[in-house]
Amino acid sequence: MAIFITGDTHGDFTRFKKNIFYEQAELTKDDCVIIAGDFGGVWDGSAEERHWLDWLEAKPFTPLFVSGNHENFDMLADFPIEDWHGWNVQRIRPSVIHLLRGRIYEIQGKTFFTMGGASSHDISGGILEPDDPQFKRKCRMLDHRGALYRVNHRSWWKEELPSQEEYQTARANLEKHDWQVDYIVTHCGPTSVQAELSGGTYKADALTDFLDEVAGRCQFQGWFFGHYHTNAVIRKKFAVLYEQIIQL
């Protein structure tokens, strides 16, 4: 059995084609590929989106993902929480599975702490409300300036960052495991790692600060995350991934 990890897909799953991810020829549904956030496969419910989800389901491996910041959290919330090998997950398709925040999963005899989410940084123009009477005018003005903005419940959701309940769940589960896991999968990195990676470009927030706490308290072999659209290894234990697919 094998476990692979990759970065943001944003609804584009072509990296899993046979002539790119050739390792799949030897895989079965007992083997997993974990996407470290910005899955993007639950976005608009279109026929094209359903096609690609069915295409993923037909793959010989089991795709797993944590949430990123570019997810449609309204749609994601409609999927019920179900059982998968004794743990709570959301099944997008029978074997396309969302790993929830603050959980510790045992996969092929290894423990994984998962904590999806991140702050959107492409919102310098702000978050617009679609029911604002001035919505169209504001969009035109921002478009004219080339400003980066998003629209609430259309391209941005406050659930991109965890709730207090999710932080509480995370701490409680880590306490149960004496703050020891084999691997950690998140979408963004801890504050200190993010600063080292970006040279201070990305700002700290409640989630990156929480992840810094985890990095300081938890014993783990490796930490994998996406979000920054690059591939790099930091301090030997932290691996940021984008389009690269690596095997544990």
Alpha-beta content class: alpha/beta
How does the major sheet shape up? 7 strands, mixed
Mean pLDDT: 95
How do the strands of the widest beta sheet line up side by side?
Answer: 4-5-6-3-2-1-15
Helical proportion? Answer: 10-25%
Low-pLDDT residue intervals, each spanning 5 or more residues? none
N to C succession of SSEs: EEHEHEEEEEEHEHEHHEEEE
End-to-end distance: 11 Å
Give the DSSP E fraction (strand runs of 2 or more residues). 15-25%
Number of helices: 6
- The total count of strands amounts to 15
Radius of gyration: 18 Å
Give the CA-based shape. Answer: globular
Describe this structure in words.
- It is a single chain.
- Helices cover 24% and strands 25% of the residues.
- It is built from six helices and 15 strands.
- The protein has a seven-stranded mixed β-sheet.
- Helix 5 packs across helix 6 (206-217).
- The model has no long low-confidence stretch (mean pLDDT 95).
Write the layout of secondary structure elements.
Elements: E1 3-6, E2 32-36, H1 47-57, E3 62-66, H2 73-76, E4 81-84, E5 87-93, E6 96-99, E7 103-107, E8 110-115, E9 127-128, H3 135-145, E10 150-151, H4 164-176, E11 183-186, H5 191-198, H6 206-217, E12 222-225, E13 232-234, E14 238-240, E15 245-247
Parallel strand pairs: 1-2, 2-3, 3-6, 8-11, 9-10, 11-12, 12-14
Antiparallel strand pairs: 1-15, 4-5, 5-6, 7-8, 13-14
